[in-house]
Amino acid sequence: MAPIIRPATKxxxxxxxxxxxxxxxxxxxxxxxxxxxxxxxxxxxxxxxNLESTWGFVLDDDxxxxxxxxxxxxxxxxxxxxxxxxxxxxxxxxxxxxQDPHAALTVADRTYINTIMTIKRTxxxxxxxxxxxxxxxxxxxxxxxGWGRKLIARAMENLQENGVKSVCLGMDPxxxxxxAFYTRLGFMKLKGAEEGIMGITVQQWEEYAV
Length: 210
Fold this sequence. Notes:
The chain starts with a strand and ends with a helix. It is α+β, with helices and mostly antiparallel strands. Strand 6 and strand 7 form a beta hairpin. It has helices spanning about 15-25, 40-45, 75-85, 85-95, 105-115, 125-130, 145-160, 175-185, 200-210; strands at about 5, 55-60, 65-70, 130-140, 165-170, 190, 195-200. A seven-stranded mixed sheet has the order 1-2-3-4-5-7-6.
């Protein structure tokens, strides 16, 4: 059976968390960097299956989820929902580990836990360009086959259907392959935003990438 793109569901949580882990190190696996491997997915994947204003699509290859695009149509509403219903339990769970001298934490674990403890709101530069944001991750087995472009296309279609005119994304600046991929699709660096932030309007997507 050929791979299909379908809406993400809560039943995909384990698969999405695994994909996030296997691509979290600038596009490569971070599995060996963590003693708490759930951390990347808890920050960058699972919120999009549980909070307000979110949506997601996955590439399902004969029952195996191998790629996802996740996002929020209203970033500020997403942040408010996360502040109320997502970060508090994670802070209570992981925060004490930073003060525990016996906790088996790697450098990567500490970095991610610190992110949870000091989560930042989306910058004004990003919000000035777009109300929405997205994340996309693809397992190596399905990269460079056109699926990333197709998932982005489905995401842009979803945004247009919901009246959203532009979207931003953030990536690790060290992931040069991802930067090249987004640039080919028409995403642009945002003036005044930190490194690794790119964006595109629905109109630009229709004119440039399709």
